[in-house]
Specification:
Layout (H helix, E strand, L loop, with lengths): L10 E5 L8 H5 L4 E2 L3 E3 L6 E7 L8 E8 L2 E7 L5 H10 L5 E6 L5 E14 L8 E9 L8 E3 L5
Antiparallel strand pairs: 1-2, 1-7, 3-6, 4-5, 6-9, 7-8, 8-9, 8-10
């Protein structure tokens, strides 16, 4: 049987606090708010820069992994100006600080990370549209290089 599933039931939580330790236990101890009305969480994950070397003797390009970037997320939401999680995201967009985030999938797997909310935009749209918001998160690493922390579901 395949372990593939839909994204239905996935939630995002946000906290202004940093974990005492950059692991699942540290993140789980934080008081966080669920960000409501998310319609698309986008993608996230570490990406390495490509470093190349072209020795003239062999003419071939050698490829190496360089620095890494934890990536970014583009969120789409139905705007709810009374949602505590959305209000915290909007506040985070006005701050230079890293915030703590938790993505919990429908089967209980979790992804924990730090990030900066780089944008919070409202889209009023037309008469036949839901008023929406979008946010861009830039995922960051801890001072020791810890990025996204994964905690698999108990039943996976």
């Amino acid at each position: 049987m395949s372990g593939v599933r839909t994204s239905a039931g996935t939630i995002l939580k946000v906290s202004a606090a940093k974990p005492s330790t950059f692991d699942a236990a540290g993140y789980s101890a934080l008081q966080s708010e669920i960000v409501g009305e998310i319609t698309d969480l986008g993608e996230f994950g570490r990406e390495f820069s490509l470093v190349t070397h072209q020795p003239v003797g062999s003419r071939g390009t050698q490829k190496f992994k360089g620095s890494f970037n934890e990536g970014s997320m583009s969120l789409s939401l139905g705007l709810d100006m009374s949602d505590k999680g959305q209000l915290l995201m909007k506040a985070a967009s006005l701050s230079d600080a890293d915030y703590s985030f938790t993505v919990t999938t429908q089967n209980g797997a979790q992804f924990f990370f730090q990030g900066k909310v780089m944008s919070w935009k409202v889209n009023i749209g037309s008469v036949d549209q839901i008023t929406t918001a979008s946010a861009t998160l830039e995922l960051t690493s801890s001072p020791t290089g810890v990025g996204i922390v994964e905690s698999p579901a108990a039943n996976s």
